[in-house]
Predict the structure.
Amino acid sequence: MPESNPILYDLNKVFIPCRTVLEMEALSSLFLEYYNYDEIKELPQSQPSSDKLIEKFHVIDCEPLEHIIEYFMEVIVNKLKPIVMYARDHHDRFRMGNVEAYAKTRLCLFLALHRLKLKFLVIKNFMDRFKDNNYKLDPSEEQGYLGAHTFLSAFYKDYYKKNKMNLKLMLSSKRMSDRVSELMDTSKIITNEDIINAITFKKYLDDKNRIKFIMKEIKASLFVCRVMFAQMDVYKPFTLAKEADLDAEEMMISQDFIPELIPAISKCYAEKQMPQLEDCFRAYEFMMHRVLEGINYAVEIASGGQIILALDSTIYNTGNIFEI
């Protein structure tokens, strides 16, 4: 997509001041490459300082990475104001706020929520096409008859391609002139290329690690969102008041969802067990629906009830990534 494209211009009006969201997402993703999500899962509730996060992420004395956390926590997160509770319909408690007064400070939160939802929509797009094609892969995705490996290969390839396309849409690839480049010391700067590489470097993985990679990506986005919501005194942003027993956040990272159901669907596809495949798919659709509802609810909270998204809608334009 040409960089003069109006979609890119529109996105960059939001993205340029919010680049730190992707930096923090990339850093969280790299942390999860070596450590378990449980180590940071409850951290947002304590509203940690930048020093605490730097220590927790094991990046002390690594200046570029320290700077990412310091800027994210001290400039972006600290500007977020608590959202007060209002009664709605005489029985529900609903988080509201004057979004217009805080619109600029919440841009980063909206972008983080956009990234989180986009990851699930990429998965949903692939699975919807699979179902619409009578539970068959597109001919272009078949690699001979390789069974489960073919399904998971196609699934991961589609996720990887669309995620990278979205990153390139937001991260300009324009190069500096040689003269400007010589004047700038980039040794202590995280470049756009660094961010893309950090998030997409695992291109070739086996089936088991493909699912792990996608889950790591989801958890990284979820963590970034939760840190910002915690600053606003919202600790369960994805849980609908009317369905408190169905925690969309827990569902996002549950072993029973993507880590179990996608391989199960893949296995049924390989073994041509259509009744079992349809059962697994119904379970997947139920959980995906709940997750997307939960993210939409978080967007509604963050916007003071002013942004109501359809299930498949995103906050920002995604270009044509769902058309290819």
